[in-house]
Amino acid sequence: MLKVPSGLTVSILESVPAAPRNTTEKPVALMIVSGVLTIPLPGLPVPIVLQNMMMMLAGGLLGKKFGTLAVSVFLLMVAVGFPVLSGGRGGIAVNAGSKM
Questions:
Q1: Which class is 18-96 in CATH?
Q2: What is the pLDDT of residues 46-69, one digit of tens each?
Q3: Which one of 29, 34, 36, 97 has the minimum C-beta count within 10 Å?
Q4: What secondary structure does DSSP assign to 24-73, as a single string?
Q5: How is the chain split into domains, by residue range?
């Protein structure tokens, strides 16, 4: 809860305008769901996922402002540690670790 000077208590989500919230929630949810659905390829360490397509689709459909916001929210969730990447991975160590 956020304490405002007038003495009213407001939640943090209520202080964010409704348009960016409603616009970015669905693409972020689609990015998460598309990462869970993976197609593993034998002999390759990287599975096929639709997350890349969903990120590009969010940027293309939502425009610069809201597309960037949606992808930034998703990347922030990954950095914090939510298991939203393929294989249920998450956290800053995923990007800092070895790729092969």
A1: mainly alpha
A2: 788 888 888 888 888 888 888 888
A3: 97
A4: HHHHHHHHHHHHHS-B--TT-SS-B-SHHHHHHHHHHHHHHHHHHHHHHH
A5: 18-96
Token look-up 């007038």 returns 6
Q: Please state, in angstroms and rounded to a whole number, the distance separating the CA atoms of residues 53 and 82.
A: 20
**Cα 73 from Cα 61, distance rounded (Å):** 16
Q: Return the structure tokens found at 29.
A: 């949810």
- The residues that bridge with 41 in the sheet, in sequence order, are none
Phi, psi of 55 (to 5 degrees): -65, -45
The pTM score is 0.70
Q: Please say whether the beta carbons of 38 and 46 come within 8 A.
A: no
Q: Which helix (H) or strand (E) holds 80?
A: helix 51-80
